[in-house]
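Chapter review: from sequence to fold.
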Amino acid sequence: LKMTLDEVANGVEKKIKVNRLVRAEGVTFKKCTTCQGQGQMRKVVNTMLGQMVSTTTCSTCGGSGQMIDKRPAGVDSSGLVSKEDLITIRIPAGVGDGMQLSMTGKGNEAPGGGVPGDLLIVIEEQENEELKRDGNNLVYDLHISFADAALGTSIEVPSIGGKVRIKIEPGTQSGKVLRLRGKGLKDLNGYGTGDQLVYVNVWTPRKLSSEEKAILEKLRHSQNFHPHPEAGEKGFFERMKEYFSE
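The token string follows.
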């Protein structure tokens, strides 16, 4: 079952068509004449140590204790036919790619009126072009201009359910991670909700006009444009370790 990221985040109800084996109309059953409805065969063997009893599944009824009495034309020996069913399923929020869900009794019916099998549903999570999943957290790569990083700005970023506006503080450095708490995915087992992590990347232009080059040349030797990390400022790996340990 293919699911989008929004469907994974909120849960969804879907209707699916399933071909399953069901008992054909007009089929009737009677007690198995081989095992007398027991579903098993007992065998007693006399040995020097006394009698030894073993049991095996009845080969005639396959252990159900029943055998077909009447069946319409075109129905196989098990009394089952293939039928397309429309089944409504409710997928909870927080499922993941490859996860398997089970619907009891929605699989094939068993020959002889036994217990029906289950319907197994394997989740296939479709990739989102903007948001990447990391467990219950969502990750977004934000690219901003040098001017916005230096002066500060507010900008909209994609999130579950629509865009949200975030504030970029003046002097924001490339590699900074902004955490939007509660904007991730719900935990499947009910242990809270993940966050959305916004990775800030300061974009360096590859091509400049003559006027732009002249402006930057004037600023090249400005003291404020010389890199001077503040004492105690954490590097990239320290920041990542801190964010993911919270």
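Two observations follow directly from the output. Helices lie at 5-10, 146-151, 210-220, 236-245. The chain has a mean pLDDT of 88.
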